[in-house]
Amino acid sequence: MDILLAGVGGQGILFVTSLLAHAASRRGWPVIASETHGMAQRGGTVVSHLRLGRTHVGPLVPLGKADLLLGLNEDEGLRHLGYLKKGGSLLVEEGCGKLGLPSVKAYIAMMKLKAESVPAARKAREIGYPLGANLILVGKAASLGWLPFSQRELEGALRELSRPNLVEKNITSLLLGFSSCETGASTGPCKSSLQS
To answer: Which of 2, 137, 179, 181 is the most exposed place for a label (fewest CB within 10 A)?
Structure first.
């Protein structure tokens, strides 16, 4: 599976990349991860390429080949749409609602993309943990069946990777992403990814 994560510095893209890579490693899958933009500057563009279960491939997801694009920032997610393959999946932070723009809707339709947006930043602020927005998106992607990991697998990986003082906050954020399907926040059907 090829995943592209796009956002800006300070959103925890590298943590999400590590989380998904760790979950894949726990299954015994080969993992290749790399970043293509500088992370030193808060607010600067950050893009991470993650290739799971693949061997004999390069470190970067080629244009038009990603199965999933996670846009932790709406603008950055849409800026990298060209990485998605036809029929791929797009999950972005809701931002200003740009998924509804005519040009974006036309591209999504032409490429037969599955596309969702989630107000992850707002939900994270509501629970008093703004840094959890990235994990809300991960939980949502997994609940839609767009990530190959179960809730239990992601929780286990989070417990192993999180700093001790952030474990419970991180898990609460992840579960909020899973529950966003149950509360009707999704514009499409939610699928179970529970497959340990």
So the answer is: 179
